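User: These chains co-purify. Model them together.
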Amino acid sequence: MVQINFAQKSVNLKIVYYGPGMSGKTTNLEIIHQRAPEGNRGDLTSISTDGDRTLFFDYMPLDLGTVAGMRTAFQLYTVPGQVYYNSTRKLVLQGVDGIIFVADSSASMVNQNLESLRNLEENLNEYGKSLSTLPHVIQLNKRDLPDAMTVEELSRLLNPHNAPIFEAVANTGQGVFPTLKALAASVLKNIMNEAGQKSGYSAPQAPAPAARQAAPPRPQAPGAPRAPAFAPPQAPLPMQAPQPNYSMGVPQAPAGGGFFPGAPQAPAHPVPMHAQQPPGGLQLARPSPQGHPPLALSQTRSQPRPALNVAAPRQMQAGQARPQPRPAPAPASHGQARRPAAKAPAPAEKPRKKLTPIFIVAGAGVGAVLAWVLTNVL
Amino acid sequence: MSQKPVSRDENLRKSRLVFYENDVQRLNAEIDTFLELSKARCALLVDRDGHLVTRRGEPVRTSEETVSALIAGSFAATREMARLLGENEFAILFHQGTRDSIQLQLIGERTLLATLFDGRTNLGMVRFYAQETAGRINEVLEEIHSQNRSADLNADFGSRAEDALDKLF
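Assistant: Joint model of the two components:
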């Protein structure tokens, strides 16, 4: 789902690389990460198994820059291709704006390609989407394989919606960027169409079959029944994806700061987990007129809120300090949690304090009378 | 699977999420109050698709986009686990580290409030105030989602995006 955030002046789009296992989805992302300008690419994060198979997804943000005042970014995901990872594959598809289907051109992979395409349509249907309406392109990868099927054959099998088709050898980078560019343009065009605005912008059309080559023309060897689209690479198959320097799993924060730069060292959870429950003193004072109870520290709510500069660019937001300086670190305790409630004295305490001397005097008087009666009368 | 026909407006609501500046100001105000009360360090409001809506409090060291994507992924995986166990979903997740910890709370149908905190506060405080704040944020989000909003992108956004794509690739 495209997110248009006018406060942050940003447009975020989600693009997913889909396809059978080992078809080259992660390799596409690795090439983009290697070759995209440094200022436009984010970290490539991979949740993968020890065997370098994608377990959940690979992720990389790609910043298009500021377009008409809006910072436009593509969030690029891959899915695990193996059949048994369908649950995670489906999760990654949530909110997708465009799909690049990476097919393996090898004749031995035709069934896996078809199964993956069918699975894609099924998973999209569960989110109320369909390839018939969702922007997508098809990348025929591994065109350098000796048993690669022809573009026409693969197109007939894998492209029922007449989407743009691109040939690629992802591990050499051929065809990777044209594929992404075509989909990005198609997704952007879709946004403008939905907005109903005449932008004069037209995404690249699906190339004619004769012009579908995203890379150098296919060398025609006389008499050869099937020629590869590209000259075979120097390195023999299986193709080894170049290994970029990217983080595996959640980026590790350097020691000493945790998630935050320059963070002061704070005690690591001094209170045991079983004691970390909200104390009973945190009671809501009274229901608010909006129908939900106010937070306990009602005086904080009544204070004027600090001025917010949400219109500032995100970089400015990142540098903004908290509205009020944070107090010095204090050990977490129940007393700390009770502090807000303790600031509101109970209304019944004041009259009780005034009455106490009267009771003392009255008690003393009664005692004196009793003593006099006991000594003089009895 | 047969799909029910949907109107254009309904389709737009499902296919895009538009936040105006005033929306984010209201969300920021709620989150600022939450951070003051809970003494947490940072809070991120993340769409379940992995897009960051807003971040308040101290800046995050690493890429906010990446953290948002992983937060959404973590929640999605746990939701699937809940479904397999017969639960609708686990509305609150908690990851404890040696120094920083993170609590994820589902707000409404499609938004997550991720709160990062350290030893200056504790889980009870964060959970208590997050629960309160979630109700308020949900009211704002429901209002946003119920409206049919135009994107109001610049008319030349498409053509400029094409130029930017040409430069990038």
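Chain B touches chain A through 89 residues (CB under 8 Å).
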